[in-house]
Design a protein that fits this description.
One of its GO terms (molecular function) is purine nucleosidase activity. It comes from Ferrimonas sediminicola. Keywords: Glycosidase, Hydrolase. Pfam families: IU_nuc_hydro (PF01156). The protein is of the alpha/beta class and 319 residues long. The protein contains twelve helices and twelve strands. Strands 3-2-1-4-5-6-12-9 form an eight-stranded mixed β-sheet, with helices on both faces. A two-stranded antiparallel sheet has the order 7-8. Strands 10-11 form a two-stranded antiparallel ribbon. Helix 5 packs across helix 7. The longest helix is centred in the last third of the chain and has 22 residues. Bound molecules: beta-D-ribofuranose and calcium ion. Calcium ion binds next to loops.
């Protein structure tokens, strides 16, 4: 099975993705690293410990960054994920916080070095921990197998942003970190709004999961209530996009996605802060800030039905 460290800011869809990674037989989630984002670092770490314990995931949890590298903090997205990140579900106040003594970036570096070429970093929150890992251990690029992130938007199918007209939330929360991660010399695959807005968990799909997938199905239904309320009130649809689980799906079965190659940069200031741009490999420009960095993979197409089936089969197998 593919070893992953799952870097996350739980987060409702983060919880859905964690359960997916836990369920998939070809994924071995050795670690969960936490980052601020949907909630504070305290809430996100408590939620990660709660999910890891409650569903016997058996992962090491390491705590990460409490804020972005240099920009002013944006603050938790309580309107989407609720007061403490998991909608109306509250991790108990006395939840044991069993965390590794190492910080998330140090844990990533040591794990990558202990298992050269075997660890995929799957990051579904702001990319601060990955950027700090690059700073702490620049050689980490030679030890990590691959980096797969949920974040960004490149204008495929009209999707440019969800937190601003031109920025996706995870990139907007720490654009400097994202630019470092995308321009580092390691292979990155970006699963952004271009594809996550092509997939949809309908209200009906989640009802069926509740009825057919035991405790875990019930939990996914419960945790998604707040999220679905946001979607129905703000976007006018019954269901939600498949954000963070799509990054896990890419690791489990890359054939679900169509990708495009080219170097990627991030706008780090001004009104377009957090905007992501990919230059296609075969273009030439006179003023080019892209070419020095390696080509990365951007997902531009997804087989939605197959993705929903894979999620279904995996979650049901836990029942
Ligand atoms: C991303 O932002 C967060 O709200 C979600 O958990 C997801 O990682 C979607 O833009
Ligand atoms: Ca997330």
């Amino acid at each position: 099975a593919q070893k992953i460290i799952f870097d996350t800011d739980p987060g409702i869809d983060d919880a859905m993705a964690l359960l997916f990674a836990h369920a998939l037989p070809n994924i071995d989630m050795v670690g969960i690293t936490t980052v601020f984002g949907n909630g504070t670092i305290e809430d996100c770490t408590r939620n990660a410990c709660y999910l890891n314990d409650r569903f016997n995931m058996g992962a090491t949890v390491a705590r990460g960054a409490e804020g972005p590298l240099t920009r002013d903090p944006v603050g938790p997205t309580t309107v989407v994920h609720g007061e403490h990140g998991l909608g109306t579900i509250e991790a108990p106040a006395d939840q044991p916080i069993n965390i590794d003594p190492r910080s998330a970036p140090v844990y990533m570096s040591e794990m990558a070095r202990a298992h050269p070429g075997e660890i995929t970093l799957v990051a579904v929150g702001p990319l601060t921990n990955l950027a700090l890992a690059l700073e702490y251990d620049p050689e980490i690029v030679n030890y990590v197998k691959e980096v797969v992130i949920m974040g960004a938007a490149f204008g495929e199918n009209g999707h440019r942003g969800n937190i601003s007209p031109v920025a996706e939330a995870n990139i907007y929360d720490d654009p400097h970190a994202a630019d470092l991660v995308f321009t580092a010399d390691w292979p990155v695959t970006i699963v952004g709004l271009d594809v996550t807005h092509q997939s949809f968990f309908s209200g009906d799909y989640l009802d069926k999961l509740r009825d057919g997938a035991g405790d875990v199905g019930q939990f996914i239904w419960d945790v998604s209530r707040f999220y679905l309320k946001f979607y129905s009130e703000r976007i006018g649809v019954d269901g939600c996009h498949v954000h963070d689980p799509s990054a896990v799906a890419y690791v489990a079965d890359p054939s679900l996605f169509i990708t495009r190659q080219g170097p990627v940069r991030v706008v780090t200031e001004g009104p377009a802060i957090g905007m992501t741009i990919q230059k296609s490999d075969d273009q030439f420009y006179h003023h080019d800030q892209w070419s020095p960095s390696r080509a990365q993979n951007v997902c531009v197409g997804v087989e939605n039905e197959r993705l929903l089936q894979l999620y279904w089969d995996s979650i049901v197998s836990l029942a």
